[in-house]
Amino acid sequence: MFGKSRFPLAVDIGSYAVKLVQFEHRKKKLALKRLGMASLAPGAVDEGLIRDPEEVMRAFEELVAAEKAKEREVVVALSGSAAVVRPVRIPSDAALPVAEAIEAEAAQVLPFPVAEARLSHSRMGRVEVEGKRMEEFLLVAVRRKPLAELVELFRHLEYEPKIVDVALLALESAVELAGVDDPGESIGLVDVGASQTLVHVLRAGRTLLTRVIPHGGAAVTAALAKSLRVSAADAEAMKLGAKPVPSPRAAAEAVREEAERLGLELGRTFQLLGEMSAGERVTRLVLCGGGVRLEGLPAFLATSLDIPAEILQPFHNVQVAAEVFDPHYVETLGPVAAVAAGLAYRAMEAGE
Ligand SMILES: Nc1ncnc2c1ncn2[C@@H]1O[C@H](COP(=O)(O)OP(=O)(O)OP(=O)(O)O)[C@@H](O)[C@H]1O
Ligand SMILES: [Mg+2]
Questions:
Q1: Are residue 4 and residue 106 in the same domain, yes or no?
Q2: What is the tens place of the pLDDT at every residue in 67-105?
Q3: Is the pLDDT of residue 296 over 50?
Q4: Do 160 and 128 reside in the same domain of the chain?
Q5: Per DSSP, which regions of the chain are E strands?
């Protein structure tokens, strides 16, 4: 099990950019070896689905070339509508065998036919619901078609996908890696990407709820383009502060509307949690993804949801050699590469 395969290249294919993370051991401690990102043309990936494999391959090759990475083993993830993670409950005295009971439950909750998915489950524990004893499992359903396409894409480039994971689960691992302390609090882990926002509510390492909101930083860019009557590329540059904004007031208004929409969706999601498990409430927001780099967004979400927010720094407890990495670069890109970091961490644990 030892050897370099313990540290495969972890690759997160987002709709805005492909991120890459690799760890290594330095003096027996976990250390960051590579952290990189390559932008994608808009539309190449959307809500976790690859629309333009050529463009994704180009970006990935650009990234490994820039990183001079020689490893051929990768860990990748499915996200968005390609992978569903959900806690499910089965009565403790169910007549059906567990796998069958979970499949029956999956048929109810999945947004696609069970036959199109690969199901797996892990036991989380026992709960009591209205006086009935239930077994709780974490159901993971991965759609076969995007899974096969993802594997094919890497094989085409002569890389071997050692693990195909799920972005929502990788996020949880990024929190674990970061050592975010968890004294029994319910953490609302929120990854604001470009085309989607992943939400994973956890308490003491247990998944309470997950949701994918089909809304992220790209909507902010689109709103800016519309309000300022500029191209999407110009709006993006203005959002990133690389170009002056012609009418700051209109821009602020457009951005605010999108931030409010996201806040509203998050609020609804967290409310759902209270309805599902009485008294359960998110008491801490842990934010990541490129979308949270939008100026003022973390503070806005914290205020509108009335929950303290912090930015996830996945490499907080990882050795980062000063001669290799600029600390500012790691601090800026770390939260954006949370999924990739979690993937790399899980792959390493799986290899142990
Ligand atoms: N400095 C910044 N200010 C504002 N927005 C930013 C900044 N940097 C990145 N973004 C935005 O973050 C978004 C990209 O985030 P991220 O890289 O996490 O998305 P992704 O993982 O590629 O997409 P998805 O997960 O939705 O498929 C884009 O909308 C981008 O404009
Ligand atoms: Mg993403």
A1: no
A2: 999 999 999 999 988 999 999 999 988 888 999 999 999
A3: yes
A4: no
A5: 9-13, 17-26, 29-39, 45-46, 49-50, 73-78, 83-91, 117-129, 132-143, 160-166, 186-192, 197-203, 206-213, 284-288, 309-311
DSSP one-letter string for 134-195:
EEEEEEEEEEHHHHHHHHHHHHHTT-EEEEEEEHHHHHHHHHHHHT---SS-EEEEEEE-SS
Structural domain including 209 reads 181-311
pTM of the model: 0.96
| In a shared domain, residues 321 and 229 | no
Kindly give the number of the ligand 1 atom that is closest to the alpha carbon of 239. Answer: 4
Give distance in angstroms: CA of 42 to centre of ligand 2. 14
**Same domain, yes or no, for 165 and 200?**
no
Give the residues surrounding ligand 1 with Cβ less than 6 Å away.
14-17, 45, 193-196, 216-218, 221, 236, 239-240, 289-291, 293-294, 336
Classify each residue of 293-319 as buried b or exposed e, where b means 16 or more C-beta atoms within 10 Å of its C-beta.
Answer: bbeebbebbbeebebebebbbbbeebe
Q: What angle do CA 295, 301, 304 make, to 5 degrees?
A: 130
Distance of alpha carbon 218 from alpha carbon 195, whole angstroms? 6
Same domain, 54 and 171: yes
Q: Quick one: which atom of ligand 1 is closest to the CA of 18? A: 22
Residue 319 CA to ligand 1 centre (angstroms): 26
